[in-house]
Amino acid sequence: MSGAEKIAVKVTEIVPLNDLVTRFKFERVDGGLLPTFSGGAHTVVEMQDGDITRLNPYSLMSDPMDQTAYTISVRRDDEGRGGSLFMHTRVALGDEMVISYPVNLFSLDLRAKKHLFVAGGIGITPFMAQIKQLERFNGHWELHYACRTPALGTYGDELRAHHPNETRIYYDDQDQRINLADLLEGQPLGTHVYVCGPKGMIEWVRNTAQADGWPREAIHYEEFLAPKPGKPFEVKLAVSNKVIQVGEQESLLEAMEREGVDAPYLCRGGACGQCETSVIDYAGNFIHRDHWLDDAEHDSGEKIMPCVSRFEGKTLVLDR
Amino acid sequence: MSKFTFPESIRSRPVYGTLAPRAGSAHLFVADAHGAEAILDVATPEIMAKGHIIYLPKGEGFGDKLRALNPASFYAGPSFAAAEARLHRMLKDAKMGLQVYLAGTEGLMGQAQLAATDAGIPHTAIQTEHRGSTARRMQCVHCKGITEDVEIDPFQCSHCGLNLFVRDHYSRRLAAYQAVCIDAEDPGNVPASKGIYE
Q1: A2-49 pLDDT, tens per residue?
Q2: Residues of chain A in Cβ contact (below 8 Å) with chain B
Q3: Which of A62, A129, B66, B109 is deepest in the core (most CB within 10 A)?
């Protein structure tokens, strides 16, 4: 079986938080305890949408030591491929679902003397669990959280009420901006910075920190990409001896799964490297979207990440 | 003759590079003896404007040349122990963006790196360049005592007196190589000592 091991759960709480974000709580169907996890971990939620199985990763945001339930917060994306809309419109209290064991691609570096969190929008969710983890150990942390408006500032009030000294919130509609240069410049030696938010924000923090001489090992970021639609294409899977069609709205990984090919994955968002696949032959162009392979590997035509990347052309033969 | 090419060894053995200028909010140099040459090679006026040098001459005369680089601060002292309190203080007050450059003997670089990693800098972010003596800082695995500046193999532990074999197993936590009794099975049967790299 591919991906992390699965857990059967039921939905025990659905709380709409604002116009965009709804929180879901999962408990085990068999009443048992869930595994503990570490702050920053995600779970892949399976959604049975008619004939289509949607698999979306969501950051766990509950207390990592609380084994009675997991909670996730889902931001509705009306332009997306339907996973978050399914969660918002089709999932009801008491529904049974399947989620994966937690996988962490965004863990705290516990050697850090101080943890500096930079969040944008729904990027706040992994930090909710990391903050709970650090609070248990009396960790030293600080959060800078940018969101559009106070109404859309998910968990802003809660964070400010519980951690008034550690939390600073910036509202776009009030023209408030994180002064990143000043923020990074004053940090004591041993600080690690963690960023989760839109692509532009991640690039901004990474580039600014690196230019200021921050070690690469002290800069952490998480960005899961949603598979983007594109032109349909045909793939030959050499090991499975199948020729399959990848539709406009599905990813290469999803097409393989639809055809019964057991392909590995963990994040389904171009970040973890688990689905890396060798290319045996091709005539055409790759549309690489992952941030796992480096530029040279993208140019080599020897590898593809089927969770987010696509192909345009005549022939594509994969070692799968 | 201050450069030496170490033979290939096990993964535990530290590998040293060549200092290169990096962007940073401040630059801390710690060097002993011929390590000064590595600082002279990498120094630029821009770096030295925010540069701090801790130097242990150990009888070498590079002090004036280093001072002529006009670093923001300069300290010369007789031993690592003498400089240690100053080094810890500088690291404690430092901000992210500090670049650390270590040059000279393995014992000096290892101990300065330990201070820097304790202060929160990932060891992979610290630059090192070996210059001068190839003497090693060795820990006796039996009595745990540390003998500085070991140049021969086998050698006698300066604490417990056992005859010790020089190994390439290195501990970053101790900033020392490990030394193991060479005549435990047959006391007194000790091969003649020779230079570690002979």
Answers
A1: 788 999 999 999 999 999 999 999 999 999 999 999 999 999 999 999
A2: 111-113, 184-191, 209, 211-218
A3: A129
